[in-house]
Design goal:
Blueprint lengths: L1 H23 L3 H11 L2 H22 L3 H22 L5 H23 L6 H6 L8 H13 L3 H12 L4 H8 L3 H21 L6 H10 L7 H15 L10 H37 L18 E2 L8 H4 L7 E5 L1 H5 L2 H10 L1 H14 L6 E8 L10 E7 L5 H8 L4 E5 L2 E5 L7 E6 L2 E5 L1 H8 L6 E2 L1 H11 L4 E6 L2 H8 L16 E9 L3 E10 L2 H23 L3 H4 L3 H16 L1 E5 L2 E9 H6 L1 H35 L6 E3 L5 E4 H4 L7 H6 L34 E5 L1 E3 L23 E11 L6 E3 L15 E6 L4 E5 L4 H8 L12
Parallel strand pairs: 18-20
Antiparallel strand pairs: 1-9, 2-3, 2-10, 3-4, 4-8, 5-6, 6-7, 7-8, 10-11, 11-12, 12-14, 13-14, 15-16, 17-19, 19-21, 21-22
Helix pairs in contact: 2-3, 3-4, 3-5, 3-12, 4-5, 4-12, 4-13, 5-8, 8-9, 8-10, 9-10, 13-24, 22-24
Length: 813
């Protein structure tokens, strides 16, 4: 009987101990992802205990009262709980929390100063120069202020190393940087801090800055504070009431910060929409036949809108309570004469784009009829959900679409509708409506969409927009701002540079119609609150257009360079802005303009190809950065870089260095599966080839074998991988910033095969590149990644390949 009573207690203690051990080994990103998915109290507690000392320290330094500091501590972690989903990809959670806590503490101090007139106001203190002989508290407060003002790339390493006590290696791993880059950023950050403090009259050495930051970093966490903060965070994340866990004052402060963050994003979205509308008007503006309401405008009252029998099937799926939609007639645009001619002229570029698009979507581009994008309504703490409705001109193969978008997906019924959700890191869901239509989006967006009620009330402008979109137009867009959102938006300040756009904040709804046949024409209709608001909005619009004209007219040649595509768009923008007309029709502002469609359409595929190449180059650059970081972490662990190959006892190469660094690219499990005493193509090891990590995959070409790579190292005399036992950084006499570490080498090879780029000073250089026409990407021994042009001098390349040649390198282009 005794054992029966004790066992549950022991089991609970073991579970708690196991949970603490498990969470302590997880990264911030992993903890955030797990908390977002499961809302586990132990996971959030791990975050609070990990970063709580930093947060409480900054709160105490800004605020004089302990209770005020603890209130801000709780408010900071409430914000974290509510924003965990959107910040889980944050490289440095510590730096983010420092910024939130510091801003909250400043607001609390300013509020306290207003309540107590006899206390020193923050504004006055902030403007007072702190002299070196002032109190240590003043110095620390000034350090916080200047640290908060640093760019994130310099603040993050300082926060991690000096305020959270991480080693250089731990901080580098958190940020995904090579340890060499970490040391460089820390040095630059300290220097920036020293200069900023110097302007305030404080002269400190780099060592003194480090000491001052470290001395202010430690704060013991009261258990009761941790407990209440964790409970409140879990309740907030799950949408439950906070009564009894934190004070109303703390909840209000957190709510204020969340609202500020939200409104900042909304302002950027609205300003971007207005700016894009004006810029588009400067490139492809078109006319439509819709007429504005001749009656004086009133605030749009919601009403039920029934889909008529003439409403296209895709538009019938657009919810009336959405924030907006945009419908693109892909088939009509694709078959325009100018675009047909351009496709023929583009040749292999067109073929490559079409093949890639079909592989990504599961449907050929020429089979897509319409694409309708939907932005579901906003809440104060949720960014808009974006969905895409795809219709096809002929039945699509569902298995191909599912394989492309949600491989190994799981099908469920949601409100009696089939929904396939991806797994294994595929954050996508597909609702298969019919054999001619499917809806694509984030799983959370899809769930919210399928839960909408069909009889919701909608603004009158929605029905008008649906009729427009049902017509023969190439592009139709619509946006609607609900009254409460519009009212909140109007209360927010605008950046000084675009303050003239303030009248446009009275926007109730807007539409844009684009036609591309013959001349490219566009009509933008902005429905304002009333005629007076429309008159002011016209002035703001005209000011914006004049600013754009001035910008384009005074654009320096260096901004365009030799890029013909950029030059084409600039010329077309000037032409369209010259033809732009802005008029008021009752309470609406109508903007129209036009330009020649052929040059625009002719630039579509080259433009897409250029954007895709740029994105691919960025992706390959990130791959190389991760590989270089893994190399450096290997060096930090073993005292040298990995050898080019794992050898057997007789010196025969068995497996590539790409296998050796697997534990350092979060692939320790895969590493342990390899038989390190067998060759790469042994019966056992060749079964692991299909498990190639994505970091080794090609990004801009389609290899015949998908499990091959072109990321290679140079082997041979004087290279970084000359020694079969591995080279140390100290052996790189030419300097880490002047020596290749990993490059893109032409000719894909199985990723685990020990095959690289042999270098002989007396022989021809091995062929480099293989992904980009203009050159190749290379990771250097300092962790940096640079693009090397095909025009690079051969002597320069030879100098960069060797680690100890002593060549003089004046600069790398």
């Amino acid at each position: 009987m005794a054992n029966t009573q004790v066992n549950p207690v022991l089991q609970h203690i073991r579970r708690m101990a196991g949970s603490a051990t498990e969470t302590s080994e997880l990264s911030d990103r992993e903890l955030l992802e797990r908390f977002t998915a499961r809302h586990e109290e132990a996971v959030f507690e791990a975050l609070v205990r990990r970063h709580g000392p930093l947060v409480l320290s900054v709160c105490r330094r800004v605020l004089n009262q302990e209770q005020d500091a603890e209130d801000i501590f709780q408010a900071t972690f409430l914000v974290l709980a509510r924003k965990a989903e959107s910040i889980r990809k944050q490289a440095s959670l510590g730096s983010w929390l420092f910024g939130v806590a510091y801003r909250l503490a400043l607001k609390a101090r300013a509020s306290a100063a207003r309540r107590h007139a006899h206390e020193r106001r923050f504004a006055a203190m902030a403007q007072t120069e702190v002299q070196p002989d002032e109190s240590l508290d003043d110095l620390r407060a000034l350090l916080d202020q200047e640290l908060h003002g640093l760019p994130e790339k310099y603040r993050a390493p300082l926060v991690l190393c000096y305020l959270e006590g991480k080693t250089h290696l731990e901080a580098a791993q958190t940020l995904g940087w090579p340890s060499g880059s970490m040391s460089k950023r820390l040095e630059q950050g300290r220097e920036l801090l020293r200069l900023r403090l110097g302007r305030r009259g404080v002269v400190l050495s780099g060592v003194a800055i480090c000491t001052s930051l470290a001395d202010s970093a430690h704060a013991a966490l009261p258990p009761a504070l941790v407990s209440s903060s964790v409970k409140a965070g879990v309740l907030a994340a799950t949408g439950q009431a906070l009564a009894g866990t934190v004070s109303v004052h703390v909840a209000a402060m957190a709510e204020g910060v969340l609202k500020t963050m939200f409104m900042t994003k909304v302002k950027l979205c609205v300003l971007a929409l207005l700016g894009v509308s004006m810029l588009t008007a400067g490139v492809i503006l078109a006319a439509s036949q819709d007429k504005p309401d001749k009656q004086p405008a009133k605030a749009e009252q919601p009403q039920r809108v029934e889909a008529s029998v003439d409403t296209p099937a895709d538009l019938a799926l657009v919810p009336g309570e959405s924030l907006g939609f945009m419908r693109l007639a892909i088939s009509d645009i694709w078959n325009l004469p100018a675009l047909k001619q351009m496709r023929q002229q583009a040749g292999t570029t067109t073929t490559d784009l079409l093949r890639r698009a079909e592989k990504a979507l599961g449907v050929p581009i020429d089979a897509i009829d319409k694409v309708t994008l939907i932005a579901l309504g906003l809440s104060e703490h949720q960014e808009p959900y974006i969905l895409g409705i795809f219709t096809t001109t002929r039945p699509y193969a569902r298995d191909k679409v599912q394989k492309a978008l949600v491989p190994d997906g799981t099908e469920t019924k949601h409100n009696d509708r089939p929904l396939v959700t991806g797994k294994n890191g595929v954050d996508t869901a597909v609702y298969f409506v019919s054999d001619h239509m499917f809806v694509l989006g984030d799983p959370r967006a899809m769930q919210a969409y399928l839960e909408l009620k069909p009889d919701a009330k909608t603004p009158p402008s929605f029905g008008t927009a649906v009729k427009l979109a049902s017509g023969k137009h190439h592009i139709v867009g619509w946006i609607h701002l609900p009254q409460d959102l519009a009212a909140t938006l109007r209360q927010q300040p605008l950046p000084e540079a675009v303050a003239f756009l303030r009248p446009l904040m009275d926007l109730q709804s807007g539409s844009v119609v684009v036609d591309l046949a013959g001349e490219a024409r566009m009509r933008i209709n902005l429905r304002m609150a009333d005629e007076d608001a429309a008159k002011q909005a016209i002035e703001a619009t005209q000011t914006g257009i004049a600013s754009l004209k001035e910008l384009l007219d005074n654009l320096p040649d260096t901004a365009i360079g030799s890029d013909a595509l950029v030059g084409l768009f600039v010329d077309m923008g000037k032409q369209a802005l010259a033809s732009c007309r802005v008029v008021r029709e009752q309470s609406s502002v109508v903007l129209t303009a036009q330009t020649k469609a052929t040059p625009l359409l002719s630039s579509v595929i080259p433009g897409i190809a250029k954007v895709r190449a740029s994105a691919s180059r960025m992706k390959s650059s990130n791959n190389l950065k991760q590989i270089a970081l893994a190399m450096h972490n290997y060096h930090d662990t073993y005292g040298h870089f990995p050898p080019a190959a794992i050898l057997d006892k007789d010196g025969k190469p068995l497996l590539s260095w790409r296998v050796a660094i697997l534990p350092f690219i979060e692939q320790d499990g895969l590493y342990k599966e390899f038989h390190l005493d067998e060759p790469w193509d042994s019966e056992h090891n060749k079964k692991l080839i299909p498990k190639m990590p994505k970091v080794y995959a090609l990004v801009n070409v389609e290899p015949k074998d998908p499990h091959t790579t072109i990321y290679k190292v140079f082997t041979g005399k004087s290279t970084v991988f000359e020694d079969p036992n591995g080279i140390r950084i100290a052996d790189i006499a030419d300097g880490t910033s002047n020596t290749f570490l990993v490059v893109e080498g032409d000719g894909p090879v199985p990723w685990s095969k020990p095959e690289d780029l042999p270098f002989d000073p007396e022989q021809k250089l091995p062929k480099l590149g293989g992904q980009f026409d203009e050159g190749f990407l290379a990771a250097f021994c300092d962790g940096s990644v640079r693009f090397m042009s095909n025009q690079a001098n051969e002597n320069l390349l030879r100098a960069l390949i060797t680690r100890n040649g002593g060549e003089k390198i004046d600069g790398i282009p």
